[in-house]
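STRUCTURE:
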């Protein structure tokens, strides 16, 4: 059985957990925080979460893990069959990670861990996020899902990344993404109704660590 390493508040961890739950795959959760201990680095070489343990060994990086799970062919796939449409889903995932999640992450210390960011850093992140959201608006369909009428893995990223980023922009940048980016609020609301997400939220409510 696949083991999923990480913790309930990690947004990347929950993207993989959502994939496992939506596919109805059996898995075991192993709670671990990101760390630089040799033992964990032998499993996740950057010390990050999530990672999974399979019968063949460990695997890291959320997108890679989701692709691996998908390729096992167990339960439904959340990639379109058409190669171009599938690539468009992967494009959305890449944009979400590179141009929204990663810039916003530079303010997580300020917003979640009481480490104030300089005005310079905030303004630099604001500019990057403005570009990122403008790019997302060109790619996203919100029909009702990010890539069109079917839910895709891009929605998993969207929920756990953009959902968090809206809190970061509001608190650190006084920017209400729901007001400036049409479609974001409705899709987040829709995804919150999934049984998989309800399960994840229940687990989060029981955990006592900051949401990252
Ligand atoms: N690119 C990685 C990012 C994972 C990541 O940054 N996870 C966070 C927790 S949400 C973490 O481990 N942070 C600790 C660190 O960056 O050292 C992935 O796709 O899985």
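SEQUENCE:
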């Amino acid at each position: 059985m696949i083991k999923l390493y990480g913790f309930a508040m990690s947004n990347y961890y929950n993207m993989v957990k959502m994939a496992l739950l939506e596919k109805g795959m059996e898995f075991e959760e192993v709670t671990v925080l990101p760390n630089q201990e040799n033992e964990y680095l032998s499993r996740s070489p950057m010390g990050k979460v999530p990672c999974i343990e399979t019968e063949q060994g460990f695997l890291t990086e959320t997108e890679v893990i989701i692709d691996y799970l998908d390729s096992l062919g167990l339960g439904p796939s959340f990639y379109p069959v058409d190669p171009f449409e599938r690539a468009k889903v992967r494009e959305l995932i890449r944009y979400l990670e590179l141009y929204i999640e990663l810039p916003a992450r530079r303010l997580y210390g300020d917003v979640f861990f009481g480490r104030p960011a300089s005005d310079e850093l905030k303004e630099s992140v604001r500019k990057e996020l403005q570009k990122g959201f403008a790019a997302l608006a060109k790619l996203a369909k919100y029909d009702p899902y990010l890539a069109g009428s079917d839910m895709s893995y891009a929605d998993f990223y969207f929920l756990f990344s953009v959902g968090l980023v809206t809190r970061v922009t509001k608190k650190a940048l006084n920017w209400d993404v729901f007001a400036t980016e049409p479609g974001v609020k409705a899709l987040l609301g829709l995804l919150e109704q999934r049984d998989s997400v309800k399960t994840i939220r229940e687990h989060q409510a029981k955990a006592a660590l900051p949401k990252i």
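REMARK: Residues 83-105 form the longest helix (23 residues).
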